[in-house]
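Mods, move this if it's the wrong board.
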Amino acid sequence: MKLALILNVIDPKIGGVMIMGDRGTGKSTTIRALADLLPEIRVVDRDPFNSDPEDPELMSEEVRLRIRAGEAVPVGSMKIPMVDLPLGATEDRVCGTIDIEKALTEAWEFGGGSGRRPGWGRRGSVGAEGVKAFEPGLLAKANRGILYVDEVNLLDDHLVDVLLDSAASGWNTVEREGISISHPARFILVGSGNPEEGELRPQLLDRFGMHAQIGTVREPELRVQIVAERSTFDEDPATFRAKYEARQAALTNKIVDARKRLKSVDIAYDFRVKISQICSELNVDGIRGDIVTNRASKAIAAFEGRKEVEVEDIYRFAHVVHRCGG
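Not the wrong board. Structure tokens:
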């Protein structure tokens, strides 16, 4: 479970991870603890969408227009964001809302009060000026970060549809009264849940690159160790955290190095054929299993400081990225 989360941070295009298991097995605790390990990314300062200053696909429309006009946008850094999506969240809270009156006023003033408004884009969308009337939601905050849904199998259907649309396109579009605003919404989707509490919609499950199953620890010695660690934390959280601070920092640096190394990792043609052979023999629907296994194998190699994928890398995670067809 922990390695699956780390690999998704190294290569977000793996597609996220779904973690199912019994109650009290540390699913939520482990996922939220990942926030301390997340490295920093370069962002456009004061941009509500965490826009990448170099990648147009990860920029808001306003930032793209500013760069296209030759403006030097201020650049800063921030930790990769981790955003919780509550089960009871409204669609406006998730997607964001548009202040219709403000959007119309700004677009009209920007256009000089007559004719076609320069602040308006194609198909009635609002351009850079109208974006100021947009109140970003959770999808905007999660852009280039992690969106975590606890008890994802209990998520309302209308929110599932929103996640499916954003996960498929990498963009979130909000439409109100004929006004449309879009912004990048590329995030690592992480979900957890207890299978006894309900099934996950197949369409949403298909959006997770990896699927991990967590069981209750049965070994008495390990259970005793877990209880002791929890007791130590409850008595003095600061001392407990300090105990692992150096290891946490080392792991963060290892993740940062792996992200830099990932592009130079190579996977031999024979290994790519082997991956497709495994997927075919397991009757995996589509080719998503092939893609995810290739990416996961390269991420493992990068994490372990190598530039070549080994056959063990392929088998190490093949069982969590494949879902057999009927």
